[in-house]
Amino acid sequence: MLISLSIRNYALITSLDVEFRSGLNMITGETGAGKSILLGALSLLLGSRADSQILKDKNQKCLVEGSFDLTGLNIQDLFIRNDLDYENPTIFRREITPQGKSRAFINDTPVTLNVLRDIGVRLVDIHSQHQNLLIHDPVYALHVVDQFGRLQDLRNQYSIVFEKYRQLKLRVNQLQEKLNRARSDQDYLEFQLTQLDEAKLSADEQEELEQEQLLLEHSGDIQSRLSESVEVLNESEISILTRLKQLMTGLQSIAPFYPEIDDSASRLQAVYIELQDLSGELSHLQNKVESDPDRLRWIIERLDLINTLEKKHQVSSVGELIELQVSYRERLKNIQNSDDEIITLRAELEVVLTELTRASQTLSKERKKTFPDFEKQVSQLVRELGMPNGRFEVHHEETHEFSSEGTDEIMFWFSANKNQPAEELSLVASGGETSRLMLSIKSLISNSLAIPTVIFDEIDSGVSGDIADKVGNLISRISVGRQVLNITHLPQVASKGDYHYKVYKYDDSNTTHTTMKLLTADERITELAQMLSGENITPEAIQNARVLLKKS
Predict the structure, then answer these.
(1) Are 345 and 172 in contact (CB under 8 A)?
(2) Total structural domains within the chain
(3) In terms of residue numbers, what domain contains 80?
(4) What tens digit of pLDDT does each residue of 373-414 get?
(5) Three-state SS for 419?
(6) Would you say residue 27 lies in a domain?
(7) pTM (whole model) above 0.85
(8) 52-56 — which CB contacts under 8 Å span 24+ positions?
């Protein structure tokens, strides 16, 4: 529950520190005193958005801090999931700077507004007047029925299966879209891959073919030069080897009587042997080089094919063509794999769909069981609240589409008059009737709401007299076992509270301020009397106030 609230520099509030108790806390004050400001500050603490316009002093930051007792709530997992220290009591803090920047903290740890809201919604349920519109919302109507029937476990089971179904269906649709896009390119990919496969490319062939092309194109020149070389070295009558042999013979002839020539003769012999080997190699190369027009023509055609493919695919090498070939093959393989995956997922989806259908049917069946008792109890409560002919109905339709709420759609219908058929609530109920209906519904589901603090903002709007007394009794019943903060303008309702706070304004020399205080027993009598008679409190009003408190 909310233990205390501290507000600094918010709207008309300069500084306010207030402590709240368990049970029923009534909050009253004149119109315009600032009751809605108090609610706005608490909403800010629970994650609502704000800007620098809420600052009373535009040069100072706004601070709202609340202390909450978490006893018995079992929400430690929320703190663990958000990397927060679990402390009891827990402190929420919100700061708004003059520049409009917002900061939020839980137990002095910075958090996002989403975290503030996720935890705050487990601590406080604020029901303001505009939330009466929720009663016309089919989704809210389902939540109410589920809470009344204590069907949360069934609903959670359905939600788990539905989310699994939704994710699977999304995955299938995404894969199918991707596959459809890929299939639009499939013919193109197959054609390109076939062309590359038929080319039977190898990584180094282009360079080798170009080299062989050069050889064949110049085979005549090569043979001519090799033939000439062999002839000069060894085959002509005055060949180099013949002359060297003559030189070598002449030098060897003088060696017996001129020993100094031995070294030169040996070197000449080495040259002769080397040139003889060279002549043999050149002769061998000459025999290898042949003119082959057919081979040359094939090479030219092959290189033309390779160059055409490179130009077509905007690459510069056979290696890149091969990489592209691998890519095409992989893309075609993925198309086949996607087909297989979709088939597998569709089979899985059918299984989950069966499970989802069973879960939705179970949930729908239990909801339908809840309708008669819910209709009866709401109708009984609205009759107690001054609508003796009030009749409340739940209108149900079953859809053919699964949603996060199941396959049920319900609307609340109502009739306040005798022998008049019920119609859709939004068409027939006045503002006061809607408020009483919402209060009746809140009272029925309050025990199933594991929220320690409920705040009503003038939910008694549009009622008075004896009906106001009954509304107060109903709010008092809701406060059993929890903390209720009820903002009211009705003395009959305010008298039912365990504690009574007054919101009021006062002026100093510079500005107007809003503040709040817990009333003593005597102050409470005075406040109720003023609510009964206005500014001029009469003895009769004092007496009536005493009677109201005694009666409560």
Answers:
(1) yes
(2) 1
(3) 1-123+451-519
(4) 999 999 999 998 888 889 999 999 999 899 999 999 999 999
(5) coil
(6) yes
(7) no
(8) 52/96, 52/97, 52/98, 52/99, 52/100, 54/10, 54/11, 54/96, 55/9, 55/10, 55/96, 55/98, 56/9, 56/10, 56/11, 56/12, 56/13, 56/14, 56/511
